Amino acid sequence: MVVIDCLGALFSPLIGPNPHGHSLMLTLSRELRAIAAEHNVAVLVTNHVVGNHVARPALGESWQVVPHSRLWFHRDAESCAVVITKTKSVDSPQLVRTQSVGHQ
Fold it and tell me: Running DSSP on this structure, what letter comes out for residue 62?
């Protein structure tokens, strides 16, 4: 398994108005897919969330087409339970599973 913790922190200085940052990020995604296929390993990339009132992924919309599956962790305001939602990629965004962990 290849784990890259917080890819958004690495790329946030490069993306924004700079088109080369997006290009570099998508080139990295292709390389990670090639590594996964060639070595038969899973690649796990974490991303942080930005936004004041509406949470959104820090890597932006250009990253949405990259993952095969995504896990979204958030805390339920009423129960304080951690809610984990797994969905497929943007190409097939159906909800796969939601599970609460912690206080019920």
Answer: G
